[in-house]
Each structure stands twice: as C-alpha cells, then as structure tokens.
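Protein Record: Sequence and Backbone Structure Tokens
======================================================
Tokens: labelled as protein backbone structure tokens, with as many entries as the chain has residues.
Question of interest: how does this chain fold, as expressed in backbone structure tokens?

___
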Amino acid sequence: MMAIVDLARPIPTAILIVMEVILCAGAAAVMTFVFSGAVAWRIERLRAFTDNLLNSSQPGLLLPEEDDTARALNQSLRRTAERIHELVERLSHESHRLDAILKSMGEGVLAVDRQMRVQFANLALERAVGLTAPVERDTPVVDVVRDPAFLTLISDVISTGALATCRLQFSGRGAIFEAHASPYAVAPHGGVLVILHDITDIERLERIRRDFVANVSHELKTPLAAIRGYAETLLGGALDDSSHNRRFVEVIQAQAIRLNNIATDLLTLSDLESGKPDAEPGPVSVEDAIDTALATVEIEAKVRDVKLIRGEVRDARVTGHAIRLEQVLVNLLDNAVKFNKPGGEVRIDAAPKDGRIVISIADTGAGIPSSDVSRIFERFYRVDRARSREVGGTGLGLSIVKHVVERMNGTIAVESRLGEGSTFTISLPPRVESPRRIDEQEKLGG
C-alpha cells in the first residue's frame, strides 16, 4: 500500500537552515554578478576615457552622474584631462619650435646616443658632411660621417663625459669646421651633442693676414737694408769720396721714395678695405679721367719708347670720385707701359656696351702666365718680382684697382697671352640722373 505523506507535519529546523543558506547564496551570487558587471562597465568606461585622453581635447563620456560621488569623480577627471591636454599641447608646440630652430641654424647640429646612433641632424650638418638625403633616426653615426677625428671626438666625450673641441676638414671638401662636443642628459640614457662652426672664412682671413704681414716685412726689408748699407758706407768714409758719394745718396733717395710709395699704397688700400664711406659720390666723366691718366703716364711712355694710343673714347658719366677713377686708369696704364717692350703700344678705349660703360686697356707686353692670372689682384703678388722691383712697383697697384672698381659697383677682368700682351677690361654702370636734376641742369644751361 502506498504511503501517505502528511503535509501538515512540520519541516525540521536543519532543513530550513539549509534552504535559507541556499537562497542567500543564490541571492548573493545574483547581486555579485550584477555588481561586478556594473563595476566592469565603469572600469571599461574609465579605460576608454584614459585611452582617448591624449588624442582629443574631449576624451569622451565618463560615468553617469547618478550620485554626488560619481559627479565629483567626473569633474576631477575632466579637470585632469584638460590640464594634461594643455600640457601636451604646450610641450608639442615647444618641441616643434625647438626643432625648427635647430633645423634653421647656420651651425651644424648632431645629437647621438651612447650607442653612437644619430638622434638628430639638421640641414647645416648634412650640407657640411656632403649628404644629399636627410639622416634617418637611429642611423649609426659612422654611416653619416666617416672622418676618424670626428668619430674619435664623439667616443671620447661618451667615455669621459667631458667637453671636447677639435678642428675638422672633411675629406673632399674645402670647408674648415670647429667642432664642439658635449654630453647631454644623464647616463646611461644620455648622449653627445656636437655643434659644427664653419670657420673657413676666418681661416682664410687669418691666412691673408699672415701672408700680408710676411709680405710687408719682406717688402720693407729690402729698401731698409739698402738705405742702411749705403748710409753706413757713407759714414765709413765714402762721404768724402766725390766720385761715389752722390751715387750713394741717389740710391738712398730712390729707396726712400720706394718706402714712401709702399706706405702710401698701404694707407690707400687700408682706407678702401675699411668699408668707411668716401665723400658723397658724384658724376665722373670717363673721357676726362682717361685724358688725365694719359697725360700722367706720357713722360714715362716716352722714356721707355712705348706708344700711347687713345682709341675710341665716347664720353659717358659714371658715379664715383674722379680722383679714384683716375688712380685706377693711371695704375693700369703705368703697368702697361713699364712691363712693355721698346717700340710697344698701349691702347685705351671706352664705349657703352650692354648697358654698361666698358673701358679696355690693351698692351703688347710680355703677357701674364695663365697660372698667375687668377692671383694678380692679390696684395704684393708679382708675376716677375725682379722686374717689378726694378721698375719701382709696390705690388699693391692692382689690388687697389680692384677695390676701387668694386666700390663703384663695377667689375674688372683680364685676358692675357704669354708673349703677346694683356687686356684689362673695366665695366662700370652708367650714372642715371633723376628727371628733376636733369631739368635743373637744363635751366642752368639755358
């Protein structure tokens, strides 16, 4: 017979406790699941917010502002985001400005890390070492510059951490650089910053200065030695020798004149090179300057049996100083006469050409070797030193000529064939009178 369950019979307490525990555990599990999901959703929103923090001034939505705590947290995070974005923008702006400054610097700038890999190189450095393409970051410096002295400079600074300087002249390039290398940042993450200063012009000027001092000393030494020697001879008894004393005094006088000429030319050249402006330039008649110069060298030409030919001379006006233009023409004509041969000729012409006033002085002298043509305008440079001293030249005339012509915004060139003669050509801009000045001159003329 089937057993009949009595439902009215009370449930044992133990079973009730177990059931309550099971129900509580289930409720706790459901609440934990719901809470963890909400927390995970909030964490995901915070993660998305932080991921987008540096990419936009509006990183996105934060937590729903359901209570004061969430609202305060949102406001705090938004303020932090705005400050961070402002700071990043400022740093980015400063970085771009610094990069633009470094790239536009005239000095070469190179930054390398401790592994001697390039971190930065500006355009000036790329030009200095002869590169045709930009240097990529992390390129080994040995692939950029193969100069041993340059690489040694960098490695020494890396190993010692001390400043270092050296002069460099990269092979195949004429420029001379002074390299300053210094460590930057803090080891072990630091590196070396190298700055290249182009000192080519400074070196050239220093060489010119040394050559100038040596040349001046040499030029002054010869006449001073002659003056001293003949003076000592006269004092030693030759003063009473009527057959020689006059000749000795004439030699002393000639050497003194030579010293005076050198000093005068040096002062003229110094004045021209100083850059100090002359008096206000005015109109200069080319024809008048040529006639004055021809008259000045006429006697010397007759003594040396050289014929002066005044060719086609069209009058024109240039801007400058008449005495300076005459000095130029006298120097060139005097050289053409003195370095000519007996029975030779010197011809001067002047005419407009291609909007310029062109003055040419041609001679039938010995000519200039092609190896010397490019240097004849240097101070104290002589093609034939013995002949130049014999005729009383100082070696400064052509240098003065070049400076005067350039001050008049002109150019000078020379063509020469050995044994056939030389032709010096001066090209000057014509003077342009303002319409008002022309009207005033016409009224005065009328």
Remarks:
- DSSP finds twelve helices and twelve strands in the chain.
- The first strand starts at residue 108 and ends at 113.
- Residues 13-51 form the longest helix (39 residues).
- Confidence is low (pLDDT under 50) at residues 440-446.
